[in-house]
Amino acid sequence: MNILNNIFGRVEHLIYQPWFNPLATLYVNFRLCNFLDAVKFPIYIYGYPYFDLLNGSVQFNSKVTSGMVKFGQNIGHFSSPKGKAYFFIEEKSILVFDEKCTFTLDTSLRLMKNCKVVFGKDVVIGDSVKILCENYIEIGEKTRIAYGSQIVDTNFHYIKDIENNMIQRKNCPIKIGSYNWIGNYSKIMKGCETSDWNIIASGSLVNKKFQENNIIIAGSPAKVVAKNKQRIFSTELELDLDLYFKRNELCNEYSE
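Now predict its structure.
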């Protein structure tokens, strides 16, 4: 019975996992990268994305290796593909990758003319995340952005104060620090800046600067709700903690 379960489990996983798409991979690399980078195939595409526009460019800040950037892999196992990854990249817009980066299912990328989006080393973007840029977005090293979140550096339209007739800028840079953990369905809006090792709680709306490390941000609009906290990023340590709490069911805390 265990053997059958293992066999069926492997088959189910293969069916559920979006397959590598060689034609889309070939097209994206030679459409967005310079020739010397494109021949190394740094971008892998899985599934069947929708290319609305690919007039921008991709740059790399490290040694270019095959498959260092992946779009469409199901590594989170939070949902099945609902549609297609969406790409709308206007002319003179730039995607920059410091090193490897992973986008899971149904990512939407919309880069407007002359904007720039920078991904630090080993960033992971969860299912159905939308990144819309008119100005500048920077996401720091090792940051994790959970499913359903939005990162938008623009209001799309101007708003006038009818008392003084002042009209404010509609877009503003977003800078997310390293080792941040952004909870599912969070909204990161124009003017947001976070420091390193910050946690943004699920469903938060963040539209201002937070310059402290190791804080938890929550709410709409977001505010600091806890200090001296940071996510455990080590998979090995998390497995050890799982085992510890399983063996100590009455214990709610662990001290290193």
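The CA atoms of residues 239 and 245 lie 10 Å apart.
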